[in-house]
Amino acid sequence: MDKACESEFKELNLEAKIILSSWYGLAGLAAIIGNAIVLWLVARNKSLRTISNLFLASLAAADFFVGLVIDPVWIFTRCVGYDANTYVQTSGKVIDYLWIHTTVATTFNLCCVTMDRYLAILHPLRYQDILTKRRCYLFIATVWFISFILPCSRFFVKDGSVALWLSFTIITVLIPMINIIFCSIRILKAAAAQSKKIRNNYTLQSQEALRRGRKNSKAAWTIGIVVGLFVFCWLPSLITSLVNYFTPRKCGLTRQLLYYTVWTSVEALAFTSSGINPWVYCLRYEEFFKALTHTFPCVKRRNLEEALSHPRARKQGDTYT
What we know:
This protein is mainly alpha-helical. The chain contains 13 helices and no strands. It has helices at 3-9, 14-44, 51-80, 84-89, 92-122, 127-130, 133-149, 162-200, 207-246, 252-284, 286-293, 297-309, 311-315. Helix 3 (51-80) runs parallel beside helix 7 and helix 5 (92-122) runs parallel beside helix 8 (162-200). The radius of gyration is 22 Å and the shape is globular.
């Protein structure tokens, strides 16, 4: 490949650096603030420490780490010190370990959140027996153990190993995405079937049945929103990685173009999901929103105004358990 073409892709122009830095900065700030609020609410309110919310807290911890560490690191490596040779020779492996760790923690915790809702909606009578708090803690500990151990292989494999990065892509993104999409489709179908059954069977027209139906439907759509955001944010990264890995090495210009231009945008989009997830929880999950109203007076006034304008909504408020 022409040396001029190679050097052209090794350095971002000033405008691109400003845009990328601002993107990472705003996404990191949203991730830090939003996930800190979620973790603080769970720690402060004993009523929020349900099995479902413990999985959410674990996901929030992973997303918080993304905003606190990964986003600033990417600002430095992509915008301040972008030279590829310096990156590999100094701290490349350590940085790779960090982003692989956070990616595994985020995607695997999201799998746990989705599986929790899958069991709660499709097997409501057996949910308490299947998923006890002890098993919940065991799953969370396993996810974090894997997220710390799996990236260690980066230190023992030579740089540029296609097999290593392809394995990481499949394990950390592709498999979780398939699992999440499958469970989400089943959740949405089950919630729709339950709602239809409640509407058609007049013997089930009790307040409790209606409340449960609305709760399951809202929970299903919330999971759908979170999963939709996950696919939207991570699918471009997955596609770019696969294209990069399966592009012949002799096509140097294409590989350089993918690494130095396309990849900078898709990885920024991927880590943006960490700043979006907590706001979805607080806005969509009634119990988080209620806890928020007791903490921040401005939110409390807004909630009171909505309750006054929609009194039935306050009376029949659903919860996400």
